[in-house]
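Instructor's aside before we start: the two examples that follow are unrelated to each other. I chose them only because their records fit on one page, so don't look for a connection. First example below.
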Amino acid sequence: MGASAPDLEAIAGRFDLPAAVTAVTPLGNGNVNDTYRVDTASGERFVLQRLNTQVFPQPELVMGNLQLLSDHAERRRNGLGAGSGEGRWELPRVIPNRHSGNPWVTANDQFWRLISFVDGAVTVDAIANPEQAHQVGRGLGLFHSLISDLPTDQLADTLPGFHITPGYLDAYDQTLKRVEIQLCEAGQWCTEFVEQRRQLAPVLEAAKADGRLRLRPIHGDPKVNNVMLCASTGVAVSLVDLDTVKPGLVHYDIGDCLRSACNPLGEEAEPTEAIHFDLDLCRAVLEGYLGAARDSLSDTDLDHIFDAARVISFELGLRFFSDHLAGDVYFRTQRPGHNLDRARVQFKLTESIEAQEQDIRAIVEGLR
């Protein structure tokens, strides 16, 4: 689906760059968008992305949110950095089209955007130690602190239904009825797993409906490899992949961060009994997160942190399994059965979270 190298240089050159493009190379391993690093003659680097308009059918709304977030972060950056106690913190800046001024370029019916590159920073696909976990949690906490005063009515809902777990369960049911697939033993295990946990799907949405949890701006996808760490110090310096920023429950973010950071083997691991939710990493994530964002959370918010980790792990497993049943139409795969294996990893992680409920709640209680 990607364009050829000469086309990429021409597309990048249509943005308001400080100097000529010298190279465009693939960057990262995202499941949705095509991403490239753009080098310029000035030495400054940028990130060029082709937005997947099958996933984001209204990409202009995505860019509107990103521009709003970029402007808001610029206004608050100095105050947040000084208050964090650990210096540098940034969000990617949107680079305008040098001809139209819009924060995007269209070429051959494809939608492209250019954002600033976070220099001197790296990401990890799986947490190596509690200090990394602490920084991942802190990164999400700083982000939530940064956008806590951004009115949700200014943000477009770029993915209606995203992180609405009952909706994913309904879609799974419809897919299961529609497709003709002979389930293998692993697939049968997954269907039984889902069936046993139907009551889990509405937990967070019910708390929102009765007023216990409220809508706020959220990132939407704060897995560990979206938190950038300083290459020399390991300190969190940025949160990237901002397409899913929208109004939602911060618990979607907290749960996604926990299920991602506290699985030491990572979501691309083999779905074996070794998959587990690590309590030491959980404690480190929450220490980092609450150290940065505790003032914006109520006691009721804290009461739902265990639910968040359990529901979001289940939700992602449900999404992977549904995509497997549908023929791998959403998440990119490298082999047959890839999404089935991903689903099993998340479901095994959910089991581990359930088995340690009292320990996880005790960690939260100790950090109030």
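Example two begins here.
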Amino acid sequence: MPDFICPVCGKLLSKNGKMYFCSSGHNFDISKKGYVNLLMSSAKGRHGDDKMMVRARRDFLNKGYYDRLSQALCDMVIKYSEKSVSIIDCGCGECKYTMDILNKLKNAGICPDISGIDISKEALYYGAGRSKDVRLAVASSAKLPFESCCADMVICIFSPFVPEEFGRVLKPGGKIIKAYPLERHLWELKKLIYEKPYENKRENDEQEGFEILEREEVKYMISLDSNEDIENLFKMTPYYYKTGFEDQKKAEAAQCLDVSLEFGITVYEKI
């Protein structure tokens, strides 16, 4: 079971009512929504996705546009799970995929133990509202608040990929399931926004200390028939924050758009 550890001293955290505490006396309040903040950072500025981005993604995903990706991820998780499985979802966001995986595992007769972390408090505010069956903490994938060799699987969906840290928390033979955008993912949205759109760069997915077990591509088109859906798709991506007012107005004016969705999924095994 991937229990939380203290971000100050590294000792195991125990839960007592509305608080986590360690034997060294460090304690961390559990929010009213049910998540705990274990992010140790004095850096100023925005941490993770803000409220607008999280709401846009929640509303867009709740309409099922990415469900084919979610189903493919669930199939992969089930394929590489035993009768019980401990999972850390790194960059879980508002937990749409997390809950899909949890429910599919239960339906398949597999006993899941899932913890999720995200650097965004706004994302976990909504994520914690989906279910109390997932332990959630504000934390960074660069310093996961878990003991070494505690998890069977790490899930990384459109989030920073930190193989050294993922390898630390995985048991020997543990799996990473990574989802990422392919070269022409959201190509039509890019063409709408930018005068000169560029394809996403395909990076080498080989990683030291891991063997690639499987790769899969999920490609399909969706039709967006409302400005609300187009705006939500735009605002849930990094593109929104990288464009000026004039480019943002292009999305505000669009009423329909056919968009390519192209995802890659890679499964790694710790060796």
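Helices lie at 51-61, 67-79, 96-107, 121-128, 163-169, 187-193, 227-235, 245-253.
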